[in-house]
Write a structure and sequence with these properties.
The chain contains 17 helices and 22 strands. It is an alpha/beta fold. The chain has 4 domains: 116 residues, Rossmann fold, CATH 3.40.50; 180 residues, NAD(P)-binding Rossmann-like Domain (Rossmann fold), CATH 3.40.50; 111 residues, 60s Ribosomal Protein L30, Chain: A; 76 residues, 2-Layer Sandwich (Alpha-Beta Plaits), CATH 3.30.70. The strands form 4 sheets. The chain has a 7-stranded parallel β-sheet, with helices on both faces. Bound molecules: nicotinamide-adenine-dinucleotide. Nicotinamide-adenine-dinucleotide (NAD) binds next to helix 5 and helix 7.
């Protein structure tokens, strides 16, 4: 039977050509179909490639008896019922790169439009006026640009900013000094320091717990009067209400927005009518080149998946040849141990990870590569967009960010299925380990020099404290006062009366103020909260 592929949502022609070139493939190229019609015919297809308009829903996937691959020419996969696809063994492939330059160029388009009043100038001319007097603008040259997030887009923006003669500063605690040096960008030690220096501040970070409303009222107050704020990353990173107040007060001179909390914007959105806010309808990736890049990328990956079973680009792909039942818990442990180690280092201010080293017991050495991928994924979790991170690409993503990954050759003896992850960040290091035995769920058994015993699931709170009576009671009360239910509590110490460490697992996510309540307690020195995401 020929392989039949549905291409929809106007995926760029160059991508479709790649598929047409394969004799075994029959291609149906159709406009976005109404859901009922697609449901009717979905069982004919081995693959569907589209953009965001076609919803790949649970009923659709369940009906699609031949479907092996869903391709998304773009980044976001919110339109795909990912859990159901995974359950049914259908690979989901996206195209995370390809739109970097489009966003970076739009940044300058938007900012120059704001600073030189281009939209007003243009509409007044179209309306038959010749008004120059109130169109006096400002230049980019000599201005300080503050980039939050020096990843792919942030990096491209920095290159172009140099060409404009700008001074470029950035805040990204997760990238190395080498990247800052290579991009000739001045490192801001804190977000506050960046905001205090910047005349134009732009965010290029994923939307995570840490970045949600990271540009809030107090952040905006740090900006120099007359600064400009740009959000082309994700709605919610800049707090809308706070930005509006800062614009009303005249403290912020203008803003450029391409992304919103709720899209599309509803009728009377707060920023409509502000002459000093350039509003764009999420067109960061809307260039012909970007659409071509993501189409070619997605179509090539779908082709390789169908022809050669290559699932290396699949977001939900299993690790070929590995036994999910026995290796799954070990992967989960490696990923979560790395996430705990990263959070503990971050608590001490060490966020730019240099290396990840893994040791494992003899029964796991044959899976060292997969386990190292899991540890790399745990290290990058919450730093990289979750749609881009999986066990297959984690090592490549980590290496591309300059992380050194290594695993020991065995001989790690605590248990034949023990794992220890060691992260190094500058002069600091942290090791976290555990056991993924076959007959019980994985346990974390070591944090730094402390022996602990808890399940790495839900939310983990790691406290360091002085080993004196009463601390456990005070912690329990503080958590109870915050309405937090303790699942497990393990107290460990090195020597009586010295340093102690407690690991508490709790159900669900704790309220935001819990950390501050815990660190305010007498004899508690630090509190680190790790919310586990992503399945290994
Ligand atoms: P990337 O992963 O390459 O870079 C993100 C950077 O943010 C990383 O270097 C990471 O270390 C840094 N970071 C993470 N958490 C941080 C924090 N708390 N503080 C400071 N830095 C932090 O991602 P990218 O491809 O450059 O994309 C950046 C953003 O742009 C994403 O939110 C993406 O969704 C968005 N985007 C928007 C459009 C659009 O159409 N407007 C198109 C593409 C991408």
């Amino acid at each position: 039977m020929p392989v039949r592929i549905l291409v929809t949502d106007e995926v760029d022609r160059e991508g479709v050509e790649l598929l047409r070139a394969v004799p075994e493939f029959t291609i149906d190229e159709l406009p976005t179909l109404p859901a009922a019609e697609l449901l009717e015919r979905v069982d004919q297809y081995d693959a569907i490639i589209g953009r965001s308009a076609t919803r790949i829903s649970e009923p659709l996937l369940r009906r699609a008896s031949r479907l092996k691959v869903v391709g998304r020419a773009g980044v976001g996969v919110d339109n795909v019922a990912m859990d159901v696809a995974t359950e049914l063994g259908i690979a989901v492939i996206n195209a995370p790169a390809g739109n970097t330059v489009a966003v970076a160029e739009l940044f300058f388009g938007g900012v120059i439009s704001l600073l030189r009043h281009l939209t007003r100038a243009d509409s007044s001319m179209h309306e038959g006026r010749w008004e120059r007097s109130d169109l006096l603008g400002t230049e980019l040259r000599g201005k300080t640009l503050g980039i939050v997030g020096l990843g792919r887009i942030g990096g491209e923006v920095s290159h172009r900013a140099h060409a404009f003669g700008m001074e470029v500063h950035a805040y990204d605690p997760y990238v190395s000094d080498e990247r800052f040096a290579a991009l000739r960008v001045k490192r801001a030690a804190t977000l506050d320091a960046l905001l205090e220096a910047a005349q134009i501040v732009t965010v290029h970070v994923p939307l995570t717990d840490e970045t949600t409303r990271m540009i809030d009222a107090s952040a905006l107050r740090r900006l120099r009067p007359g600064a400009v704020v740009v959000n082309m990353a994700r709605g919610g990173i800049v707090d809308d209400d706070a930005l509006r107040a800062a614009l009303d007060a005249g403290h912020v001179a203008g803003a450029v927005l391409d992304v919103y909390l709720k899209e599309p914007l509803t009728g009377d959105h707060a920023f409509r009518g502000y002459p000093n806010v350039v509003l764009l309808p999420h067109i960061g990736a809307s260039s012909a080149e970007a659409q071509r890049n993501v189409a070619v990328d997605a179509c090539a990956a779908v082709r390789d998946a169908l022809l050669n079973g290559d699932l290396s680009r699949s977001l939900n792909g299993a690790l070929a040849g590995e036994d999910a039942a026995t290796l799954g818990p070990a992967l989960l442990l490696a990923r979560r141990a790395a996430a705990v180690a990263r959070a503990l280092l971050a608590e001490r201010g060490a966020t730019a990870i240099d290396s990840v080293t893994l040791k494992m017991g003899e029964d796991l050495t044959s899976s060292a590569g997969a386990l190292l991928a899991a540890a790399a994924a745990g290290t990058l979790e919450g730093v990289i967009e979750s749609e881009r991170l999986n066990l297959i690409n984690a090592r490549a993503l980590a290496t591309a960010r300059g992380l050194v990954l290594a695993h020991g050759e065995g001989g790690f003896a605590p248990h034949s299925r023990a794992i220890e992850v060691r992260l190094v960040a500058g002069s600091q290091s942290m090791r976290v380990g555990g056991v993924a035995a076959l007959d019980m769920p994985p346990r974390l058994t070591r944090i730094a020099d402390f022996h602990v015993d808890v399940a790495p699931r839900g939310t983990l709170v790691v406290l360091t404290n002085h080993d004196v009576p009463g601390v456990i009671g005070r912690v329990g009360t503080a958590l109870a006062d915050a309405g937090v239910n303790i699942a497990e509590y393990h107290q460990a110490r090195l020597a009586a009366g010295g340093d102690a460490l407690a690991v508490v697992t709790i159900d669900g996510a704790p309220p935001a103020h819990v950390r501050a309540s815990l660190t305010a307690l007498r004899d508690v020195r630090s509190a680190t909260i790790v919310r586990f995401g992503g399945d290994a």
